[in-house]
């Protein structure tokens, strides 16, 4: 954090201190509420440290665990928003609609200039993510189903399902699923602000570029670097959960898909979000990424119900 503060200009030289703090409190407050809502609905931890402790077997219902998660949400969101805003203002990124509203400006970009790319990116991201469920990427789907049905009817299934429930959360109703999706879209925005803006600022400093907005090349590299960071976290999390649950399914012998199919499914679950929404952030601002994320999740759901299930299952 100190690196960003020393290298970037102070808040009062980028914008009025009052404006900075008003924007900070709004983004920080929304992020904290969204993270807390997601944790409450899913019954799963949403922070790095508590997620690690949860995988190691600690009970997330213990008071100390809840307190630790709350403190981590507050602290992580403050770092993401504070440093993200400093870096974003230094490279000409951020939340332009929110900033214009806080300044009391009455002129906003035309709705079509924001809505059209937001909808297009959202639909494209949702379609690409849902492509992970296509039959070509699940060559052993039918065999896996047969094995799973046989396992469900076995004496070991009750114990296994009880253990798996701990790791799958509790989003059981359409309303809770929708609220969880909204919370996820909002809570992801500050971290997108932090990573892309931070990388863009670092690469501008490395290139010793002049004042003004960074070049498209620098922004593309920042987006790809953010995608790489997201992939590292994703694969590390998947590996940890696999190690924690493999004993549960020891009696279930599922056929293994080819490594290329598994890799393709994982990348489709990561890259469209990182690259698509990252590009939209650098072009249209942070607010559009929240809307695009919701559009992507709606598109993903509609494709699953009306295309994948109907024609490929």
Structure overview:
By secondary structure, the chain is an all-alpha fold. It has one domain. The chain is built from 13 helices and no strands. Helix 5 (63-91) crosses helix 10 (174-207).
Look at the helices and sheets and give the structural class: mainly alpha
Radius of gyration equals 21 Å
> In this structure, how is the largest beta sheet organized?
none
Give me the count of strands: 0
Mean pLDDT: 84
Put simply, the count of helices is 13
Q: What is the approximate shape?
A: globular
Q: Please give the share of residues in helix.
A: over 70%
Question: What portion of residues belong to β-strands?
Answer: under 5%
> How many domain modules?
1
Succession of helices and strands:
HHHHHHHHHHHHH
Instruction: State the end-to-end distance.
Output: 49 Å
Q: Which residues sit in consecutive blocks of at least 5 with pLDDT less than 50?
A: 1-12
